[in-house]
Amino acid sequence: MDKYIESVYNQVVEKDPGQDVFHQAVLEVLESLEPAIKKYPKYKENSILERIVEPERIIQFRIPWKDRDGKIQVNRGYRVQFNSAIGPYKGGLRFHPTVTQGVLKFLGFEQVFKNSLTTLPMGGGKGGSDFDPKGKTDAEVENFCESLMFELYRHIGQFIDVPAGDIGVGAREIGYLYGAYRKITNNHGTCVLTGKSAGWGGSLIRPEATGYGCVYFVQEMLKTRGEDLKGKKAVVSGSGNVAQYATEKCIQLGAKVIALSDSSGWIHDSDGIDEEKLAWVMDLKNVRRGRIKEYAEHFKVDYTETKDGSPWSLKCDIALPSATQNEVDAKEAKMLVDNGVLAVGEGANMPTVPEGVEIFLESGVLFGPGKAANAGGVSVSGLEMAQNSQRFFWTREEVDAKLHQIMQNIHANAYKTSELFGMKGNYVVGANIAGFVKVADAMIDQGHRI
Ligand code: NDP
Ligand code: 2IT
């Protein structure tokens, strides 16, 4: 590794030794930036790497809330405001017991480059809490969201920071958070949160956007080899927002989705999950908040219990990891390659371990890294902001067409950039460099205090 890059990475590790996933995300980006750092000396001269790995601001706060027995529980809340060089901080809120400052720094860091790739004016941020929504009543979730907003409201705003959903935060939570924001501030805010319901300022297609966008990206990768999704067998992990709509778009484009998972295990439906079965999954996960195991019982298909719910031993053409970070390990990546996988589209953020990414790249698998492949969600969040600013809304068809165009542009930009740096078709290098250059140049333009 280049000495300058190595020294920046070592400082990151030394400053916050416990933040493994953040170190992993930083290393992956820094390594792939090497050719750009060599080609353009201005980045080193302006200490861009030292600055870009350091969040602009981190807010950490206490979230006390009352459970159903009237007992006061305490969780930790965070907002990592990573980089605002090209626009207000933008990124989701995650509610999951594994949330720590390190996890949110990794997600915020990824978000900076992802948002840059969308071409929309959005900086990068991420937030959330170690609150576990599983098994909580609606009233408990409402109570928790209110308490979180009692602090968060002072740090957000359309020109400052615009949160949205992520793991454990969907339409229900955004509703409670928005209600609390309005109650506290007596202000709708032009666009203080995205992922709102369509009846009160949300964008059509936002729920679908990450999953649809991921499949649009895979479609573009396949085109480079004269292939398409028709008749392809797809395996999707997770069964939440991203997995559900990735499945829907696969079905619409003629692929057969044979697996879904959650953190307890995975189902294998060799006949394929059709629209009707998918509607059943959406009701199970979004309304009844049940477990994917119930699909196996209901539709009489195989279920495998595992602690991380990974269906990667199945033979497939397309793999869409859409659950969480590091869910595809090196052994599983090897299995996918040995079974002839053609394309991998990361619906989740950093779902593949670094050795796994290496295996995909070395084997010539079309590999769409999360920053590029799952950028559709935040893109439509950007479109929600645009619609709110106009006091207007666009139809489903209009938003979907814009999303499709953005995903095609991201693909073209990553592909072109990989070619420019002599690594044609390496979307990791392409996406990281293309995302980085725009933010780095903005930082240089805005002076050394940025
Ligand atoms: P949801 O909460 O809707 O669904 C998450 C799914 O992943 C659930 O099926 C969940 O299972 C599973 N999962 C979560 N944690 C684990 C774990 N530790 N091990 C195994 N399975 C797990 O979240 P989303 O669908 O919104 O998010 C999924 C991924 O996509 C995340 O990486 C997120 O950062 C990323 N993403 C989301 C975007 C969005 O717009 N929502 C945009 C871009 C990326 P269980 O219910 O058992 O926990
Ligand atoms: O990881 C992500 O891009 C998201 N969770 C969506 C963020 C957003 O602001 O829509």
Give descriptors for this structure.
globular; binds NADPH dihydro-nicotinamide-adenine-dinucleotide phosphate; 12 strands; binds (2Z)-2-iminopentanedioic acid; 450 residues; Rossmann fold; Glutamate Dehydrogenase, Chain A, domain 3; alpha/beta
The whole-angstrom Rg is 21 Å
Choose one word for the global shape: globular
Question: Structural class, please?
Answer: alpha/beta
What's the level 1 CATH class of the largest domain? Answer: Alpha Beta
As a percent range, the share of strand residues is: 5-15%
Q: What is the fourth-level CATH superfamily of the largest domain?
A: NAD(P)-binding Rossmann-like Domain
Name the helix and strand elements from N-terminus to C-terminus, one letter apiece: HHHHEEEHEHEHHEHEEHHEEHEHEHHHH
Mean pLDDT: 98
Ions, cofactors and other bound molecules: NADPH dihydro-nicotinamide-adenine-dinucleotide phosphate, (2Z)-2-iminopentanedioic acid
Q: Within the CATH hierarchy, at the fold level, what is the topology of the largest domain?
A: Rossmann fold
- Low-pLDDT sequence parts: none
Widest sheet: strand ordering? 9-8-7-6-10-11-12
How many alpha or pi helices? 17
Helical proportion, percent range: 40-55%
The total tally of domains equals 3
Number of strands: 12
Report, as a whole number of angstroms, the end-to-end distance: 27 Å
Concise overview:
The chain is of the alpha/beta class and 450 residues long. The protein contains 17 helices and 12 strands. The chain has helices at residues 3-15, 20-39, 42-45, 48-52, 101-117, 138-152, 171-185, 206-223, 241-252, 275-287, 293-299, 330-338, 354-362, 370-373, 376-390, 396-420, 427-445; strands spanning 57-66, 72-83, 89-95, 124-129, 161-164, 233-236, 256-262, 265-268, 302-305, 318-320, 343-345, 366-368.
